[in-house]
Amino acid sequence: MNRRQFIKGSAAGLSASAMLGLSNSVNGMNASTLAQAKDLSPILSGPNNGVLGAPHLPAKAKRVIYLFQSGGPSQLETFDYKPTLAKRHGQQLPDEVRGGQVLTGMSAQQSSLPLAKSVFDFKQYGESGAWVSELLPHTSKIVDDLCIIRSMKTDAINHDPAITFLQTGFPIAGRPSIGAWSSYGLGSDNPNLPPFIVMVSANSGGQPLYARLWGNGFLPSIHQGVQFRGGKDPVLYLNNPPGVDSSNRKQMMEHFRRLQDLQYQQWQDEEIRSRMAQYDMAERMQASIPDATDLSDEPDWVFDMYGEDAKTPGTYAANCLLARRLAERNVKFIQLYHQGWDQHDWLPGGITKQCKNTDQASAALVTDLKQRGLLDDTLVIWGGEFGRTNYSQGKLTEQGYGRDHHPGCFSIWMAGGGIKPGVYGETDEFGYNIVKNEVHVHDFHATLFHLMGIEHEKLTYKYQGRRFRLTDVHGHVIKDILA
Amino acid sequence: MDLFQFVARFHVLVLHLPIGILMLAALLETHMVFGKSKRPYLLNVIWFWGAISATGACVLGWMLSQADGYAADAIFIHRSFGISVAVIGFVCWWLFKRAYAEDDVTQGQSRPHASQPQKNAKPKLLVSVLSGAQLFFLFATGHYGANMTHGETYLVEHAPNLVRAVAGFPPHKAARPPITSLDDVVVYDDLIAPMLEQRCASCHNDSKQKGKLNLANMEAIVKGGTSSNTLVIGDADASELYKRITLNPSHKEFMPAEGKPPLSDDQVAIIKWWINAGAPVNERLPSVAMEKSDKVFAMNVLGLSPEAFPAIPAITLEQANALENAGFVVKQIDRTNGYLDLDLSISRRPITAETRAALSAVSQNIAYVNLSYATLSAQDMALLSTFTGLKRLRLEHASVDANTVFELSTLENLRYLNVFGSSVDDSIFDVVSNMPALEQLYLTGTNVTEDNVNAFKTASQVNIYYVAYTSADAKSSAHGTE
Known about the structure:
Chain B: InterPro entries: Cyt_c-like_dom_sf, Cyt_c_Planctomycete-type, LRR_dom_sf. Chain B: The chain crosses the membrane at residues 6-29, 41-64, 76-96, 125-146. The complex is a heterodimer of chains A (483) and B (482). Chain A is an alpha/beta fold and 483 residues long. In chain A, helix 8 (246-267) packs antiparallel against helix 9 (270-293) and helix 11 runs parallel beside helix 12. In chain A, strand 2 (122-125) and strand 3 (130-133) form a beta hairpin. Chain A contains 13 helices and 17 strands. Chain A has a single domain (32-236, 313-481), classed as Alkaline Phosphatase, subunit A. Mean pLDDT of chain A is 90; it is low at 8-39. In chain A, 31% of the residues lie in helices and 14% in strands. By secondary structure, chain B is an alpha/beta fold. Chain B folds into 3 domains: 3-107 and 121-166; 182-301, no CATH class; 317-476, Alpha-Beta Horseshoe (Leucine-rich repeat, LRR (right-handed beta-alpha superhelix)). Chain B has 19 helices and 7 strands. In chain B, helix 16 (378-384) links the parallel strand 3 and strand 4. In chain B, helix 3 (16-34) runs antiparallel to helix 4, helix 12 packs across helix 13 and helix 14 (317-325) runs antiparallel to helix 15 (353-361). Chain B is elongated and about 115 Å long. The N and C termini of chain B lie far apart (86 Å). Chain A binds chain B through residues 36, 38-44, 48-49, 52-59, 62, 189-192, 287, 291-292, 294, 297-302, 325, 328-330, 370-373, 376-377, 453, 479, and chain B through 265, 307, 309, 313-317, 320, 329-338, 341, 343, 345-346, 392, 394, 396, 416, 418, 420, 440, 442, 444, 465, 467, 469, 473-474, 476-480, 482.
């Protein structure tokens, strides 16, 4: 028994309600929420309403679908068109452009940093006249629904810290992920499904992903993302085992609850309650998951939109379709991961394959949400953890060139829920530094929360003596891209 | 260090002594002269020390007046009354002492006869006049002194209009009528003044003027502060009033200073528009040229934008519970108002009398409602039509058709209507053409005809989302009910 447990245990004599009042995690009335005295105190304070009870401001995005492209897609082959690179193809990256940028160990030893043009053609599309490469024929058709941000900036140059930074607001592991914060703050809009669901493409591989990217950090574990399996059965063991019927199950759960409750009386550990809540959720998911994940009721034209892949469970396309179905069912934060965007060499071949696997379904998701009226209050985000260098890693050849990690600029897009379509931000003619409207990862998080109705400075959790928040001590809402 | 002024500032302490002592003396003296009891000799002492303390206050007051910062005429009147207090104090002391001197002597010399009734008439007139005068001068001195420290309006700031009229002040400003449309807006009173009052007035008002700037009325704004270009009419970029609120917030000249809440982006935009438009005052908005974007800013500042929610109280816990028991997911739109986001599509519970009762109890609070997959009777649709604040209505795959959809035509705030996959037909165009606020209409998978969709698209501002899949296609995408 450690000191904390001792103190909790000896306080067990107090009434349960008093304990709840003291606890940071249960009703969550920590100082930051109490401080808003002018608020109409939300009448709804159940677990489905989150610690805030109601958003700080009306949410433009009731739900988020984050299509995470893991590995760092090259901005120079997708959205950031740089004719100068073609003119200077093969010349050295000027020192004054590099500006002392630290390189990774993979290209720092190179005697030469030759600028590399994209081998793919770019054209302008839509009313915004956005430049999009030939790799993304489907995305290019929907550019007027997208806000393409070409001026994203991160602090980290390697996969682990960069992806951890983007998903949790801090490059070192241990903070809650965006979806966990959203669950903690806003709760759930569907009591029968987890408010934070994660799907990793089965038809991709590359840099590893790990559960802490969708973890709860120091928040109660009930807020962690629930990962669907990339196969025929996204969630296993939904059916009762042979010989056990539903009434047996109910009885067992009843006794189990009483046992857990005894434990809670003794230890006063909130994690016991989280665990019980997860068991209850699992029971409800026995009915809600088959309803949500069974694609057999989707007509053919839907598969035409998302592509043939969508019929194969676990593919990116199938996951996009599943994401739409979860959005229809009000799952608040739906996070997809597609790996394999880490083209250090043989980039043209690699990125062609990546785009082929993702372009159609990403665009179809936006179009499908739009025609169903869901894009109006669903935010879709497409992007990776950093950009790629404008010089070739390794030998510069037509098909063999590659690009190293580059934190200084990268491109993402957002669509729907309160976002103003268009092209935002600008990099220099080398595609190396941001020259206009930088959007730092913290600003991206602040803006994302703003769209969800959360003032990012006001959603905090006290842990180890200080109040933490997703944006730490940073972050400005990028008002220019709000609709 | 200025020892002279250090001592002078004790005026503020010492002045309270004559107020207390001389007031006590005057009241006691009056009481004694009209009452039966005998005047104690002690009163002479009280008058004397009262007059001495008044003299001390006068001297210190004169010293204080040597420092800068007080208006000459304010000093003159306060000083005149103050000296009068001290003089009358001494006069009272001397005269009353004399008037009662015989008594004192007589009493002192003939103690054995002390029980004899007092024969001498008391100096009633003298005491009344002098004590009254003393009280008057005391209060007058105090009042004019207080005016110098608190400002002339301090006393009457919260006075009833009758009192203000007697004191020669204009009556309180009447509350502006609530604004419901841009056409009613008087530029300065309704649009500009409330912003300045909200964000600037705590430091720039009639009595406190940081940087010698007062933003409480138009004359003062035109006059400006330490810098003369507070308001350069027609040129926002040259006006300090606009420059200071658009600096980097960490700049030391940024306003509002000291980390007070800044003006919103909409408010800043409106200040810019106002200055560039020539700083109109009494004009109504329609008579001033305004870009469309400025109108949006003005709507936002005034809380008139279609996105804005007028304040409404929250529903009760019982009402929320009734909705949840009827199968709704119940959410409050945000923490500052009581609008609801209701969703029956998760539970897909059938709509019963209880559902209708729970809904009609909160009908004014409903902003968003999702009734996808619901079976809706004509009665249910009629109930929907009473949700006057409704902005978003989702009826995907719901049982709504030509016979019931007309009920919705009274929803004048409806911004978003989604009937994807339902059985509505072309009659919906008659319904939605009466909806003034409608922006988004989702018709894919319904029985509308493409020709009519296109005709309506050209005739109206509404964004219509319609893809001509066969309705069997769209219908089969309905996921099965529980």
